[in-house]
Amino acid sequence: MSEEKSLWEATPSQASNLAYFIICGLLFWLVIPLFLIFWRWLQTKSTKYELSNQRLITRYGVLNKKTDELDLYRIKDYQLEEPILLRLFSLGNIVLKTSDRSHSEVVIHAIEKGEELREMLRHHVEVCRSNKRVREVDFE
What we know:
The protein is of the alpha+beta class and 140 residues long. It is built from four helices and seven strands; from the N terminus they run βααββββαββα. It has a four-stranded antiparallel β-sheet. It has a three-stranded antiparallel β-sheet with strand order 5-6-7, covered by helices on one side. A hairpin with a 2-residue loop joins β2 (48-52) and β3 (55-60). α1 runs antiparallel to α2 (32-45).
């Protein structure tokens, strides 16, 4: 079996919070929105994505940390979403449909070069499937 290597690491962009920041910023005189802005910033900053040649690892949480792992061979479908707000900053979301029972849909939020990452994922999913001799079969 091949050795696991890290291929890509990133955190979501704070641009994904822009509308939230603007609304809370307009209400700054209430003071509480300033804490909400700070908390949202911390949540985004503490989210980390790591793609290896075998797994996608998502680490998140401010006070309580959580780590989710998704074996690449479990990914069934890939989708790149580019909402207008994110497109202004050349960002996108990658939505992964999986055969994993605990996480049937995994979203990589607000990342740069989404098209490149989607293609990298697709390539490594196929490599993992062929190495493990796994085939995806849907029964309907």
